[in-house]
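Quick one - inputs below.
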Amino acid sequence: MGSPLLDIEHLSVTFRTDRGEVRAVDDVSLHVNEGETLAVVGESGSGKSVTALSILGLIGDNGSITNGRILFDGADLTRLGKADLRAIRGDRIAMIFQEPMSSLNPVLTIGKQVAEPMWLHRDMTWDDAYQRAGELLARVSIPDAAQRLNDYPHHFSGGMRQRVMIAMALACEPQLIIADEPTTALDVTVQAQILSLLKNLTRELNSSLILITHDLGVVARYADRVAVMYGGRVIETTTARNLYANPRHPYTEGLIASVPSLDGNPGEPLMTIAGQPPDLANLPPGCAFAPRCRYAQERCLEAQPSLEAVSEGHLRACFGYDHV
Amino acid sequence: MQAFIIRRLLALIPTLIFTSIIVFASIRLIPGDVIDLMLSQNDIATGNDRARIEQALGFDQPIYIQYFKWLWSALQGDLGRSLWQNTPVTEQLAETLPITFELGLLALIVALTVAIPIGIYSAMRQDTAGDYIARSFSLLMLAIPSFWLGTLVMVFPSVWWRWAPPLEYTPFLEDPIKNLGHMIVPAILLGLSLSAVTMRMTRTMMLEVMRQDYIRTARAKGLGEILVVVRHALRNGLIPVVTLIGLQAPLLIGGAVILEQIFVVPGMGLLLLDAVFQRDYPVVTGVFLVVGVGILVINLLVDLTYGFLDPKVRQQ
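Output:
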């Protein structure tokens, strides 16, 4: 396998807030190979969404990338001009957001919104783009797709809207799709449908997928590899299969243990990770997880562990006490 | 949609009746009635004359009888005759309404062409020098009364450059250019005063809309800022702005009355002002009836614009 499709190297992102500079993403390195699904797992505030948004340069005016590179197909996205970045957005890299209810424009028809990327990037006429939008809606299993082009977002349920978002993301057959918690806002019954749809369609297009989630169950079913984030850093990364079989970071271990299992004893309380996620504006000097870690030792509170290989393709950021 | 418009038009009737009662009564409450004025301008003042004129004009009857008489003929399209010129009120209104309508329309065009682009600019460049200048300008326009600005425009250019805005009214159909040359100065003054609040509202709404998730979606598609603003943000942002424009309709008409006086525009404002000074009751009542209809129709148009802007409203 050649160089990865997307290679994030030592990315740091800070935000200016009322409480001073907040480093939301700190020295994050990730890569996604062609056709691969990478899951980025973490709690809210772990930096996973910010990492995703910085790929497309959508972090907003008060955030800035202070360090690192984002190589996409050889080009550093952090150094591209606005126009060059816009040419990539929606065409070669597409994004699906968490909130299907608010991510679609309420005053534009679905057809117009789905057709827009093709009109923009493919030089299609509106008529051709509309026609293709109808095909895309059919492809994401929206019934009577061609008739629904003229409907507005409020005619659709949350799950249907997320299908529309997927159709929109697929419009230009992007090489990379970033899905930021695409099913968090949806009913559990709809979640699996949406994820399977997303997975199948990306496989058909041989696109890569970055799936951002806090749901380890999702990771197991849909991801090839996983990066676990905590306090703005990647703390463990390996294949999805290996993560469950052989977690090597205490946080990952805790996450896996806190997923309810069918084999567990009924009535037995669920495992939880004690304490609160860290405050990014006020991170401890050592390992961000140390205050909650039951294996923490003095060294963990003083120095930050770096990401090191424990085996081929399996990295973790922990001083490595034999906890597992 | 048709049913909606018909319902709204029917709802006009009680409002208009209520308006006419208030206007009918209040104009008669102003001290000094029309007969005093008439007598003071003629030398034939005797007690007998007064009674005779009262009887001739029907003022000897109780006020509610007068009102119902007026209402009855109003329902038949007859708003009475001017007490001074003896011309039908409807004729006077037909003459002056188009002129005021033109002034109002021009002012609205000025207001929107100033307010909306500057409001958008101000939002896009939030907290920059341009934003501060735009906001200060709008505050200034809000604070300066248009009659004062109107007076300045009349006085200073003539002192400095020996130029004064033209004050001679020409009907639009006779000479459109001459007509606009006369109307444009009051229209700009009126438009600027209306633009102040509209500009600030546009700015606030655009700031609000630009934070929405669907704007991020539009950017993620690769749209440039101009398309993001024009196609995705503007229609959402304008919905409340349109409401505001509807609410400003009375302000527009009130401003027109004053500016017509300053710039000698023979519109409804001037007609109203003369009629009030002369206690020309039928004319005053007639003008207010038209103003009432005007305001209600503007609000109806605002509601219809909602439907155009917001698909959710269109459905209901």
